[in-house]
Amino acid sequence: MSNITLKKIAEELKLSPSTVSRSLRDSHEISQETKDRVRALVAKLDFQPNPHASSLRKNKSKTIAVIIPEIENNFFVQVLNGIEEIAQKNGYHVLIYITHENYQREVDILHMLRSGRVDGIMISVASSTTNFEHLTAYVELGVPLVFFDRVCEIMDAPCVTTDDAQAAFEATEHLIKTGCSKIAFLSLDGNLSISSRRRSGYLEALKQYGLLNNKIIVECCLDDEATRQKIRSLFLRENKPDAIFTAIEKFSITTYEVCKELQIKIPEQVKMISFSNLTAASLFNPSLSAIIQPAYGIGRESADILFRLIDRKKLLPTQKKVIIPSHLVIRESSPVQQIVL
Amino acid sequence: MSNITLKKIAEELKLSPSTVSRSLRDSHEISQETKDRVRALVAKLDFQPNPHASSLRKNKSKTIAVIIPEIENNFFVQVLNGIEEIAQKNGYHVLIYITHENYQREVDILHMLRSGRVDGIMISVASSTTNFEHLTAYVELGVPLVFFDRVCEIMDAPCVTTDDAQAAFEATEHLIKTGCSKIAFLSLDGNLSISSRRRSGYLEALKQYGLLNNKIIVECCLDDEATRQKIRSLFLRENKPDAIFTAIEKFSITTYEVCKELQIKIPEQVKMISFSNLTAASLFNPSLSAIIQPAYGIGRESADILFRLIDRKKLLPTQKKVIIPSHLVIRESSPVQQIVL
DNA sequence: AATTTTTACGCAATCGTTTCCGAAATTCGT
DNA sequence: ACGAATTTCGGAAACGATTGCGTAAAAATT
What we know:
Two copies of one chain form a homodimer.
Chain A: H1 6-13, H2 17-24, H3 32-45, H4 51-58, E1 63-68, H5 74-89, E2 93-98, H6 103-112, E3 120-123, H7 133-140, E4 145-148, E5 159-162, H8 164-177, E6 183-188, H9 193-208, E7 216-220, H10 224-236, E8 243-246, H11 249-262, E9 271-275, E10 289-292, H12 295-310, E11 321-324, E12 327-329
Parallel strand pairs in A: 1-2, 1-3, 3-4, 4-5, 5-11, 6-7, 6-8, 8-9, 9-10
Antiparallel strand pairs in A: 10-12
Chain A binds a DNA duplex through residues 5-7, 15-22, 25, 28-31, 34, 49-50, 52-59.
């Protein structure tokens, strides 16, 4: 770390530190000539003000924290990409924390962040989170917080999501219209906002088409092997589903693998559709019909909102609860025309 | 941000700030009784020392920066995952910066980081980086820096990579052994360390099998459409390749798409193999043979090394240049037995 | 009992920047 | 030309935690 300080610059130029500081922030109470002299030396010595001293004094860290439940998930990666983009534009730094769907870790991180290390937080809660005290405690400190995707509706904080229920409805409806009547819905256990919204979209579609009695809801956990086992038993029971709708990208991969293992043909024997942001989904065998979430946009929008909060700007009324639509891409795993063998 | 400070704790307990500070760091010169009193109040008030004040005084930020060229790439995501894991264990925070393969952005980030904001840097350089002054200038400041994957060999900084040349050799050899003689190698343009190492592995295999005259090297850039066009023309030239070996995951996806478009069958008409960390590669149509890099391990190992440097611990001699082997997974896109139609 | 050592704590400087007050020096208004 | 307003800058006190140094009191040593 360079040990050249504001004070040294000041000495060198026979100025006071305050003048140098003001020059650097282009204060109107410094003459142009002095500013130029300061900037010249600063540039020459490649001086950078110490961010910790600055943060301490100004009580601003120019840093935000992004808390995500997992990183090996294209959705969160794209969100992060959007966030980083906006943060960079605003001159902010991005701290990343991964909870690995662990509630305790989430609590610890939020607790730790109460120190003033960051000016704001963006979070998608862990699947194991049912209690929100750690979040309310944080918000009560007055530090801006924005939820994205997996939100906590009851809290007074902006939420940026996609239209999960609508998207799930459309996906289910699509499956119904292509002839499916026994559609299984695979979702993450716990009571995440997205899970319940997606489930209700699924159920609503079944209801509208009089198929509510056929509902098959399977709640899977994070353990890959357990999920695999649940999917297997789904195919081994007497009343097999004729379609699978997975609410989580990862589950679609597991489902494909199980189908391969059990030699079940997609889409002939079972159709498939999934929430997924995998760019490679179109290369799957068969290509996977997917609900693509506007991940990048969610990242950008929620970051935008966070910075408005940080800058104490008024939020537009529409920015309290932002919903960006997903879109459905139909591919071979759930073809519109039934493939006849 | 909580406005409760060390000083207030001290007043409340009728102690001096120094005593409180020492109590919190478990100094031996504080009686157990006092420590207990301090800790009790600290716990009760949920006090957290201001990190900026602490960083300023101790000249330690407890933060590292991770600079990656792109994030929508499974390899870097897994590396990041490993890094975050180790950082968390060491009580460190992780700042993430994405260069988007942009040299100037990389320069700017490194310049900005010369302020003492972080205690160390982990970086994989951008493909457009040919000049390393920004890196040497940084290292000369005495701040630890570790390279991973895309390294700069000539610099005196630890490097953690995989055995690119060996892996590329084996992949090429595999293609040759399954009957291919016109193997095209698709790599990223620019002179990245990984590109040249992978290329040399490819060339070495061709050489050993007397196929050097058949070498086909295509350098692609980041523009997706340009890459697509280059791949198309590869298939449209008179002397078509009978195998494609892509050094970058993204290129394999584009290649698959082009093959679909041109109705070229993999592996019947052209075999494929790629460097890739996509978990879903096994679900491709056909499933993609891949060189899987130990991304998570690279992340963990390079973070480990960085923290040794930060703690001024001696590096083991083996930690100056760490090479973690990749492994080849053969799938349907380059079957061992030739599929006869 | 006198001395040395140890224990347990306080004082005050320090990290580097920012900003509230002044206060010269200059310009302006009339 | 003389007070008022403006411009331009410096002094010094923050911000909050850490730490070198000093020192009473208690304990140990001779």
